């Protein structure tokens, strides 16, 4: 299960269920995907995004960090 938490432009932000406990978010567009820790915000994995896209995603996450952390807590029961 991977519910969509947020959409921003071409980016879909989501969680996977039954994944590690450290708060993080996955981002996907078409054939690309990345994973970021939420606190502090840090790129963990990147499959296809260029530096400009990663910078844009970082700023989107930073601008919605509290929202994403709240959704993480609600989804994962923490």
What's the number of helices?
Answer: 2
Query: Shape from CA axes?
Result: globular
Strand segment tally: 5
Low-pLDDT stretches are none
How would you characterize the largest beta sheet? 5 strands, antiparallel
**Average pLDDT rating:** 92
- Report the radius of gyration as a whole number of Å: 11 Å
Q: What portion of residues belong to β-strands?
A: 35-45%
User: CA-to-CA gap between the ends?
Assistant: 18 Å
Q: How would you classify the helix and strand content by structural class?
A: alpha+beta
Question: Which strand order does the major sheet show?
Answer: 1-2-3-4-5
Succession of helices and strands = EEEEEHH
Fraction of residues in helices?
25-40%
If you had to describe this structure to a student in words, what would you say it looks like?
This protein is of the alpha+beta class and 78 residues long. It has two helices and five strands, in the order E-E-E-E-E-H-H. Strands 1-2-3-4-5 form a five-stranded antiparallel sheet. A hairpin with a 2-residue loop joins strand 1 and strand 2. The longest helix is centred in the C-terminal third of the chain and has 13 residues.
What is the compact description of this entry?
The protein has helices spanning 51-63, 65-76, and strands at residues 4-8, 11-14, 24-29, 32-38, 41-47. The protein has 78 residues and is an alpha+beta fold. It starts with a strand and ends with a helix.
